[in-house]
Amino acid sequence: MKNITYISASAGSGKTYELTERLKKVILEGKAKPEEVILTTFTKAAASEFKEKAKSKFYEVGKVKEANRLDQALIGTVDSVANVFVNKYWYLLGISPKQNVISQEDEKIYVSESLSSLPTDEQTKFFNSFAETFKIPEEHEDGKKCGIDYGFWKKDLKKIFDATRNFRIRDYKESVAKSKELIKIVTQDCCRLNFDREELLGKLEAVDRISYAAAQSRARDTRIKETERFRRLVNNQKTTQLEIGFGLFEMIKKGRFTTRDYQQNDDYLSLALQSNNVWVCEEVRDLQYKYVENLFEIAKRWQEEYIKYKKEQHIIDYTDMEEYLLELITNSKYECVQEDIQASYKYLFVDEFQDCSPTQIKIFDRLSELVEQSIWVGDYKQAIYGFRGSDTALVKAVTDRIERLNGKPNDTLSTSHRSWPEIVNVCNSVFVPAFSDILREEEVKLNPWDKLVKKAAESGKKDLLKCWTITENTKDKKAAQIAGNIAKMVQEGIKPKDIAVLARTNNDTFGTGELTSIALALKEYNIPTLIGDNEFKVSREINLLNSLLSLVVNPADTMARATIAFLTKEGYGAAEILDRRFEDLSTNKKDSDYFEEIPLIQKLIEKRDNYKSLSVSALVENLIIELDLYNIVKSWPDSDNSVNTFHTVISIAKAYEDHCIQMSLPCTIYGFIDYISTVKIKAAGMSDGVQLFTYHGSKGLEWKNVILVSLEEDILDDTKMISREFYGVHTSHEVEPNADNPYPPMMISVLPWIFGSLKKTPENVQNMIFANSKYSLLKRKIIQEEKRLMYVAMPRPVESLILVSNKDAGLLRLKELGVRAVDSIPDVSKADILGIGKNFVIENPCDMEGWKFNTPESKVIGLCGENKNYRKRDQQPSTCKPSKTVKAEIVYDSGSRITLKSSEEEMNKIGTCLHNIFCVLEQNPTEAQAFEIIKNHEMSLALPDASEILTAWTNLESFMTNKYGAKTATFHELPFKQYYEGQIFTGSIDFIWETSDGGVVLMDFKSYPGSKDDVVNPEHKHYAGIYAGQFECYERALTAAGKKVLAKLVYYHVLGVVVKLD
């Protein structure tokens, strides 16, 4: 870890602006070229946004070439960056060159499908017995719990799988020990059950005497019924001690023996005491031990089988990519890779550092030692993705370590470029003290931006801090009151899209979430909404577009034609379409003529030849605009969201292309159709509607007016905390990361919920948990997590902040985070409800019954003319036409060949293999190294003599040194992207030899095995001159990068000759 500048960037402080400015400065000052930069972001969308903003910075100062060359920088997610290096060095890693990337969705499918086959018969029997013993209930869609959930263990196992991948846990020994340690906290040694049946029966008689002496009542009858049920259980000699114990507990719980007569009876009190001991007895402890052991044994076996499966199927997942990259840059046997990275890259930029996983942080740590300078940007206060594998404690430890190494505080962005002064001051007053136990004031406090101070003053707007009091308690009625107040805002002229409602979650396990309830309530006022954390399914619009895309590929696709007719032409219902199909079949009509009269089909067929030449994203955009789909779908009922859907699909098409490029996958129309049917398309509703997001989902966004709900919730409720945070599957460090030891191992803990349908743990178990120091630490951890989540949500508004809570509950969530908030909302017009010296306007629910919002009619502007330029934008260098006729001559003949024993179909594979061998031989010129790569390529038969390949490389090096001078640097497979005459050429240059005077020699490797005369004969199909166009493309790219090209060579390594193109 060295030469790192860490920038602490609070919410709204302009981190993207800062990063782009620093990148611009680095490039304009000549400290690095665009292609010498690595920049990672958290999402593909963020990577794309950053690149465009960075380009605009160069355009602003007239640096067009530098802007265009930014496409040569390695900018993307950590996964995509890792994939670039894995694809480049796979032959060193000993993996197949044909690795397919398994998506997270596919991985989940694999996990689900493999779960049922993992346990042995004995383990399945144990899990079933465990479920029956503890009466673990199955949850149904109506929220009721009934029956036995025999698959309960799968949920815990899936969480173990997730933690294993997120934190690279390979050995479960410590995790098993940690889990057993937790189980010991809630059980007691020397507490083995030993019920005396006769003694129990005697005590039951004493309890019955009290019951029968009581006056007739339903409660009395229930007690008699429960004692009789338990008596039968005791009398059954086959029942175990544990079954008796649970039977006793159930009798005490259901019988409700709460009257004084029972509470003063020694026999009853003795039974009650014994019933509590059942949950902490050694028998229960032993069953939990066995459960944990079985889970981790299955997890270990699954891990081994999954690795085997991936090898057999030649697939890797995203975790593999990062691990392979970490291996390449840390293992000394890959020194050639580390030297290549050191020579190729000078700057590493990392965005959203706080969201990085431990593996990603280790990657950045090591890369900082390979590049000249690293600039990392993050914010501890916004570290909210622990459930995705980030490690907040590690992030803090690493940033502290950077401070120590630099000998000074980390850089801090201290100005809010988002919010007006009122919002900034409230956030400072709330969060500076909230984070004072872990962060310095300057790491939290922001200063209002002068421009926004002036803008706020000039606006004349007042009362920008508000609190809405809600008097109802049920979810739907609360939502109705919130919707009424929002309707009043809209009535007063505020645009719906300038209003955001943020909630802690939108998840009800059964039923409608808080945000969804508010959306439904707003519908009563005809106010449009967009739920940002929802997903919408494939719609009519997408079905129409998919059908049009299918016709571009296959004009005889009858299903696509029928779908287009059904969706766009009145009178073409299902019955009519079937009748028409039977009629056409009887007359032998061609499939390509099916529904030829439909205008949309006619228009598409006319343009089909042109459409076939477009990239997928360009095709999607052209179909939507040129075929006027916006206006076509406006005639459909409930088409309010159609425009938004098409906008989203255009974005998805571009994302699909990026995905294919990053993963080296073919980008096809059918591939896109499959992709859009499975991709999670976020945001349901109208983009100009009220925005409804969770706190998590709001990260990085901003709105003029933000309404915070979920503030009356008790986040420290012990019952919920124990069941959610103490029990279940969790990860933790035995020793917290710190600046001296930032990477302590992570462990998984499993404590199964054994209390059946009980809503909380029995009192004696709860007391044991409260008495343990681990619970206090857990509580502090939860408070810190909730502080960070609230920090993400509260600074989202630009102008106005509105807090919403139940009148009697006050702002309990904020109070539990250490804010001096009121216990209940006072009945006054203004009050300092947060205890920070700032008054909030108190508003009660508004009665807006009968009022409706007039939704503006959406207008679609058609094209004035048709786009006639159908030339493909994206090109490969091989398609580039030469500007002049070239001469090819042999300038070096080694006199030695490489023996090949292969078919013509294998020549491409052989060429790739030989090139990869050359990459490695430059660093380690041994026959053994060449043989190892041949073996990895499964080319031992085709390339039988590794020594010949070594000779071919050493011959080339000797020629190049003698002809052009000693190398100062070389580059293999150097990627580039070049804009030329409106087209984008993307590819890689096989080999570059750089000399001391800054000149470079370009070389392409070819494995043609024929005659030497063929490659210099202009009439022969293997004439070297056919590559002149792509060499011109290479030369333009290198000239733009400031390099002088000395020569353009083709090395026919199999023939042993070098050909020069002039």
Can you give keywords for this protein?
single chain; alpha/beta; seven-stranded mixed beta sheet; 47% helix; globular
Tell me the layout of helices and strands.
Elements: E1 4-9, H1 15-28, E2 37-41, H2 44-60, H3 64-69, E3 74-77, H4 78-93, E4 100-101, H5 104-115, H6 121-133, E5 137-139, E6 145-148, H7 153-167, H8 173-185, H9 197-213, H10 218-235, H11 241-255, H12 260-263, H13 266-277, H14 282-313, E7 315-316, H15 318-330, H16 335-344, E8 347-350, H17 358-370, E9 373-378, H18 392-406, E10 411-413, E11 415-416, H19 421-434, E12 447-448, H20 450-459, E13 465-470, H21 475-491, E14 499-503, H22 514-523, E15 529-535, H23 540-553, H24 558-568, H25 574-586, H26 599-611, H27 616-626, H28 629-633, H29 642-662, H30 669-678, E16 682-685, E17 690-694, E18 703-708, H31 718-726, E19 728-733, E20 746-751, H32 763-770, H33 773-793, E21 797-806, H34 812-816, E22 830-831, E23 840-843, E24 874-875, E25 888-893, H35 907-921, H36 927-936, H37 946-964, E26 967-980, E27 983-995, E28 999-1006, H38 1028-1040, E29 1044-1052, E30 1057-1061
Helix pairs in contact: 1-2, 4-15, 7-14, 8-14, 9-10, 9-13, 10-11, 11-13, 15-17, 21-22, 23-24, 23-30, 27-29, 35-36, 36-37
Report on the structure:
The protein is of the alpha/beta class. It is built from 38 helices and 30 strands. Strands 16-15-17-14-18-21-13-23-22 form a nine-stranded mixed β-sheet, covered by helices on one side. Strands 24, 25, 26, 27, 28, 29 and 30 form a seven-stranded mixed β-sheet that branches. The longest helix has 32 residues, at 282-313. The protein starts with a strand and ends with a strand. The model is unreliable at 858-871 (pLDDT under 50).
